[in-house]
Amino acid sequence: MAGGFVSQTPGVRNYNYKLTPKVFVTCFIGAFGGLIFGYDLGISGGVTSMEPFLEEFFPYVYKKMKSAHENEYCRFDSQLLTLFTSSLYVAALISSLFASTITRVFGRKWSMFLGGFTFFIGSAFNGFAQNIAMLLIGRILLGFGVGFANQSVPVYLSEMAPPNLRGAFNNGFQVAIIFGIVVATIINYFTAQMKGNIGWRISLGLACVPAVMIMIGALILPDTPNSLIERGYTEEAKKMLQSIRGTDEVDEEFQDLIDASEESKQVKHPWRNILLPRYRPQLIMTCFIPFFQQLTGINVITFYAPVLFQTLGFGSKASLLSAMVTGIIELLCTFVSVFTVDRFGRRILFLQGGIQMLISQIAIGIMIGVKFGVAGTGNIGKTDANLIVALICIYVAGFAWSWGPLGWLVPSEISPLEIRSAAQAINVAVNMFFTFLVAQLFLTMLCHMKFGLFFFFAFFVVIMTIFIYMMLPETKNVPIEEMNRVWKAHWFWGRFIPDEAVNMGAAEMQQKSV
Ligand code: BGC
Question: Where's the Major facilitator superfamily (MFS) profile domain (predicted)?
């Protein structure tokens, strides 16, 4: 156990805490929630490029893929095939809205449990699928699971973590997502070599493993002090806070949680309240951050890397291998964020990552344009193909320490308790909606916009980088219940925050009442 820490951010209160094994283990298990999302993200791209799978369920795409005359950009274009990938995200969108009520009323852990449970059933439907209907029902159930987990896990981690390390702990979610993706691509690499239908069945069916992990994890996890207070268990909340902070001297933080809870009790309708002007910064951020995260174009790589690499002329085995390499790079680079986010802050990572993604996307667009032209015919040499893979890795690295983890961290840490569950549900719903759109439209967009697609995403990266520069205040080290001070101090958002909304701690409250 490390020694005691006191957070040192000017203008915000400092709490006492130690980095306890308990908070570490709890957040580690909590982060498992990201595994189911990641496994799914990683598995679908590989499965949809397996020939036996395509032959069984999508014979039309299979025939087209085999046709030698097909335009390279359009080889895999099929709405039904993309529906297989994207149906999950519509389900996740819907379930995240229900999840917000369960997370608030029953606690964060039960949303996680439900997430694991529905994901488990979905994996069985998919592993044993006999027809398209079973496949789609399975996908929808998996989607429900993802919605529940993504709504509750980031909030859970942000609430458990000590303020000074909230970024690092919360990034555990993204690490788990990417770990899930990497494991899935490795599994795909091996199952793709199996004859007949067994390969894709194993790939899809093994989704039950992360599902069981999150179910067991959720059963043994304690709930957060914030959630215990919110549900009236004040004594238990204080004990929990003492045990995760490793000290009995938690009065100041505890009082802030109580104050935040009192304030939130005045709010009967989180969904209506989030529309009030005083929550404008949170509303805008929880809509725009996930929107922009998806408009980085990352999921073009996540879902379709194998397909994209095949389009570039790689064999199917080489394509899966390249997808594995980009996944491993993404995993390693996410740790850069884990170790720097609380030291250097969110803004610098967002800005640096954005510029890196921009440069690599433009370079990829130019290279593909030069090689395939508008007609989409031609061949790409080995050196050029490798160069494109290297550029994709640079792009993925940029995302991995910026928009990937921060797209989940920032929305989960900026909202006061009274709107937190609703805000996180909006975050997940917007994220899922645009994940759906990108998944559904990518192959068609590639077919029509050709290499211009990379410029399309680059354009959005420019906009989002300017947006962060102008609109996002730094939130590193700020206790989660103290966030209003940060908004109040911002050149633009300050006007929306009433003076009394800047949360007062016990000492100030007493002073004021004397
Ligand atoms: C995003 C996903 C993405 C994943 C891996 C997550 O933060 O929300 O859409 O697939 O990172 O890159």
Answer: 26-476
* Mean pLDDT of the chain, nearest integer: 86
Residue among 173, 293, 333, 457 to mutate when testing ligand 1 (max atoms within 8 A of CB): 293
Q: How far is CA 406 from CA 165, 265, 334, 457, 493, in A?
A: 14, 29, 10, 19, 20
Question: What letter does residue 497 receive in the DSSP assignment?
Answer: S
Q: Report d(CA 499, CA 501) in Å as an integer.
A: 5
Higher pLDDT among residues 290 and 319, named by residue: 290
Q: Is 302's C-beta closer than 6 angstroms to any atom of ligand 1?
A: yes
**What pLDDT does residue 513 have?**
33
List the residue whose alpha carbon is closest to atom 6 of ligand 1.
404
Q: Please check the confidence at residue 280 and state whether its pLDDT lies above 60.
A: yes
82 CB-near residues (< 8 Å, 6+ apart): 439, 440, 441, 442, 443, 444
Pairwise CA distance, residues 190 & 203, whole Å: 9
pLDDT classification of 384: cutoffs 50, 70, 90: confident
Q: Which residue has the tokens 């819907």?
A: 94
Atom of ligand 1 nearest to the CA of 435: 9
What is the spatial distance between Cα 372 and Cα 388, in angstroms, rounded to a whole number? 13
- Computed from CA positions of residues 211, 216, 217, 219, in that sequence, does the dihedral angle turn out positive or negative? positive
Verify whether ligand 1 is closer than 6 Å to residue 333 (CB atom): no
Report the atom number in ligand 1 closest to the C-alpha of 407: 7
Q: Which two tokens stand for residue 174?
A: 């993204």
DSSP 48-82: TT-HHHHHHH-HHHHHHHH-TTS-GGGTT--HHHH
Which tokens hold the place of 246? 């490793």
Confidence of residue 7 (pLDDT cuts 50, 70, 90): very low
Q: Which residues pair with 5 in a beta bridge?
A: 17
User: Ligand 1 atom 1: the closest Cα is on which residue?
Assistant: 404
Q: What are the structure tokens assigned to 315, written together?
A: 């064999």
Name which of 340, 339, 334 is nearest 400 in CA terms: 334
Domains (ranges, CATH) in the chain? Answer: 21-223+267-499 (1.20.1250.20)
Distinct helix (H) and strand (E) counts, the chain: 24, 2
Is 348 buried (19+), middle (13-18) or exposed (0-12) by CB count in 10 A?
A: middle
Mean pLDDT of 426-450: 86
pLDDT in tens, 199-248: 999 999 999 999 999 999 999 999 999 989 988 899 999 999 998 898 88
Residue with CA at minimum distance from ligand 1 atom 3: 299
Percent over 90 (pLDDT), the chain: 50
486-490 average pLDDT score: 94
Query: What residue type is 267 in one-letter code?
Result: V
Which ligand 1 atom lies nearest to the CA of residue 298?
12
Report d(CA 467, CA 487) in Å as an integer.
15
C-beta of residue 398 within 8 angstroms of C-beta of residue 353: yes
Q: How far is the CA of 404 from the centre of ligand 1 (A)?
A: 6
